[in-house]
Every structure is written in C-alpha cells, then in structure tokens.
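pasting input
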Amino acid sequence: MKQTEIASPRTARRSFCGALALMPLAARAQLRVEITGVGSQQFPIAVAPFAVEGGAPQEIDAIVRADLARSGLFRIVDAGTQPIADTASVNLADWKTRGANALVIGGVRRLADGRYDVRFRLLDTVQQAQLDGLSYATPATDLRLTAHRIADRIYEKLTGERGVFATRIAYVVQTSRASWELHIADADGANPQAALRSREPIISPAWSPDGGRLAYVSFETGKPVVYVHTITTGERKAVANFRGSNSAPAWSPDGRTLAVTLTREGNSQVFLMNADGSNVRRITQTTGIDTEPVFSPDGQWIYFTSDRGGGPQIYKMPAAGGNAQRVTFNGDYNISPRLSPDGKLLAYVGRRSGRFQVMLLDLAGGQEIPVTDTTRDESPSFAPNGRLLLYATEVGGRGILASASVDGRVRTRLTGPSGDIREPTWGPFIK
Amino acid sequence: MIQLRKFARSAAAAAAVFVLVAGCSSVKLDEQSPAPITDATAGAGGTKTDPRAVAPVTAASTQAVDPFTDPANPLSKKSVFFDFDSFVVKTEFQPLVEAHGKYLASNSGRRVTVEGHTDERGGREYNLALGQKRAEAVKQRLMLMGARDAQVETVSFGKEKPRATGSTEEAWAQNRRADIVYK
C-alpha cells in the first residue's frame, strides 16, 4: 500500500487562530484526551462521510468512526449524511459550533489499475488548522486496513499514543459439536481468516512478540498438546507433547522462551522451554495447580494462577526462578492474569458472587475495579497500547467477543462469525 | 509288486484319459451313460432325514462373561463423578476405582488413560488443571491397588468436551468426572 502526505490546502487554513495557536501540539493533545477515569471528558470529533467516486466496496468513514468510538477516548459528533471531499472548502468554525473539536473529511476514488485512492484530512476546528493529511493507493482487499490505518493516524495525532486499529486479534470459534477453528481477524473482529480447522478443541492461542507465530493448545491427537504455528506458511510444530497434558503457552518478550503448563510430573506445573521445545525446565514446585503463566513486559517476572492457598489466586515469581508472592487478595477465585504493556495494570477474571468478570488491578496502588457488567467473562488481553481490553463473554448462551476501555467506560461487542466464540487474544504492533 | 505297479500305471493312464475327456468341452451327451433320475419330493424314501433341515442349537458359552460389559461387575463402570470444585474420589466410587486398580495390577500388559473433565463454569485453562487434578486423584487410587505408573496416563479435557450440554446442575454433575479409558 502506497502512502503519501497531502499538504494542507489554503481553504482549511485560517489566520485568526488566536493565542492558543502558539501552544505546542503535544501539550494540546494532552489537554484534550488525557483520561483519568469515569466521568472524564471524551474528545469530540466528527467524521464526515467520504466522497466516493465510482463506488467502493467498504465504507471507509464508517470504519473510522467505529474504531474511534470503540477506543473510549472519543465522542463521535454527528456529521450528517452529506459527503465532504478532502478537497472541499470547510467552515471549521461551524463544526466547532456543532461541538466537534476535530473534523475528518476524505474521499475514495477508483484508479485505472483497479486500486483505490483513499484520502483524508484531519482538521482542528479550534486552531482552524490541518493536523494531518494522507493519501493511500490501496487494493480493494485492503480497504478495511486502510480505514484502520487512517483511524490509527487520527488517534496518534490527537492522543500522542499509537493506535491499535490496524493490529490483529486471534480467537477460537466452535462452529458445531465437532468443529473448531482458530481465526485471525482485524482488531474490530472483521475480516476473519481461519488459520487452523480441527475436529477437536483448540484453546489458549498466544501471539509471538513479532506477530508472526501463534502458540496454542490443540486436542487433535486426543489430548492437549502445545503447538507453535507460523501464520503465513501454516507450518506447525508440536513443541510440548509430553506424557499427560500440555497447555497454557506464553511467550517471553524476546520471543525466545515459552512458558507452558505440563503435567508430566503429576499435577499442573509451570515449565520454561526454548521456543523450539528444547531445554525444558520446571520453575514451580507445588503439589497442586500452578498454571496460566504469563511474562511481565520486562521479562523479569512470571505471573500465574495457583491454588496453593486453597482457591485459585494470581501469584508472581521471578522468571529466573525463586519464591512466589501472592498478587490478588479480593474474592476466592481469580484466574487468567494478563499484564498491561507498561506493566502497571493486571487484568484477570474474578469470580464475585458467582459472576465471572474481567477485573483490573492497579499493581502499585492495589485498587481493583471490575471492567465489565457481564457474568461469564473469560480470557482478557490488552491492546498493544494498553488502552483497551479484549475479552470473551456470553450473550444468549453463545460466546462473543467484546472490548472495553481500561477505565471500564466504553464497552463494545465485536463483530464475529456465527458460532460459539472464545479465547480472544490481541496481537502485537507489527513493525 | 509288479502287478501293483502295473495297476498304478494303468490307473494313472486312466486318470490322464479322464482329465483329457473332462478337459474337452465338446463331448456329446449321448456318448455318456445317462444319470439316474431320483425322486426329489421332500420326505420321499420315508425314514430318511430331510437333508435340508436346519436344527437350531444354542451353544452353552464356555467363556467367562466380559467383565467390562457385565453390569454386575464394577469394571463395567468407568466414570468417577466429583463435587463442584472438588477432586476427592467420593466413597461411592471407590469400589469402582479399586476394581480397575486390581485389574491393572493383575493384567500388567493393559494400559489406561484417565481423562479428567469439569463443568463449564470458570476459565478454560484453570478447568484443564482441575480436570487433571481429578484424573490424578483417580490414578493415585489405581496405583494404591497395584497398578503401575507406566500403565496409567492422566490427561484433561477441562470443560472442552462436555458429556451433557446445558447450564443445569444435572448437566454440570455429569461433566464433573474422570473416565477410565482402556487402550
């Protein structure tokens, strides 16, 4: 996909910007979108319908709007139904009056070679200035991706953080009593592709840090075995196929080590191995359950679920081995730990009064907040920018995917294929 | 001896002729002596048994009843059920597990997999570990009765392969179990 900057047209520049115009952009961005919790302001933005020439198979502006809304940081101001081309002259003061602090306009034009020229401009209605402008030459199959990239640009310009809309997710869908599929889809759940189909269960997919491989548990041989699967080639290898059950793979941040749960010495215990399955060594030493290992982003700690204190709770231990410390103390059932990319927040599933809910724990302050209002949540995972959580829950007896902003304010049900969906995991940024 | 040899030789020759004749497909019927015609009416000949009659006989079994299918034998039962969040083999299932343990002890060539299962509540990986703990609890009892470690592999399906579907206590109770599966 070719990407070109487009210069700010004169029509979008106004000269009466006032004192605020002297403020550096980064400081303004901080002012606008810093979210501190429930009740804080969302940034109001309008995304006008893009002007389309010659038809387009995807509604770019609708995808951009949905992405921004799902992030929880933006409030979408109604932009009406009248398309506004990227070349149009716009009265930005009017849009400010309508409540939008930023306006996105753009166009889609079919090129002679069959590709599409997608253009957008991000305009600041307060400063009356263009913040960004790009054009993308895009094959028809990549139009959704282009829309996600535009949303990422807008997100980054306005928040100073990287957007995650062009990243991918993986999840498992059970399509019938004896049919499971491992899917890779866009971050909004659209465009799903099956990486693996099986007549036996698949659970616990985990992205390699470079986004090229998935480790997961497949029961295709009649018991749980851990595989590493290269996504582009379909090449796969059983890396943990020991006597007993093999499960819960997790990658170290450098992609060289896998933590897994093995039962070859009795009950479920955490082991480390090289990513090719060699050099297996046990790191937990209890007679009960130690499972669901996950590395901290700095690679120094392993968080895991253990029943050593009775019910399941989350503990952490040095990745190099050593004593475990208990991390969760509320309730009698806390499982499936996942750390935010900055290592400051812990997401997990807690059982409270019989309800299984995604919880967030501020590791420094010890404050725990429920993120969802559903009762059968599973498998939380952080977006690579740490702003959103992806998780599975159940609606009407069927598994679905949902995302929530980490302040718990915005929750969105993701689109997905028909079937019982579970085990979502958010992929990394791709360099 | 000479006469015998002569006879053998002429018999062999006759046989050779017969083979030649039999091998020929164009022998005229009137060159053969006609076959006698017998009465084919059933019961003809009076006292003779009907050659096509079938007398049904039930064989008395000389083999032992298969212990794995005889409902009276505890070996016919292979599922051990558990309470919620528990991996304790309840008293009512101990005779079943002990019977399999004794069988394995005296049949050292047999191998089993004990497959642990859980109900649908809770996380998939934690349930996998819980199912494993159930399978391990059954294995420990099998080994107490003399089964060897190498005869028993324990695996778990967690909540992935429920026997009963639905979110009722009955379905959950069916799914909280360990199955002894002979290989």
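fyi Chain A has two domains: 2-159, 168-426.
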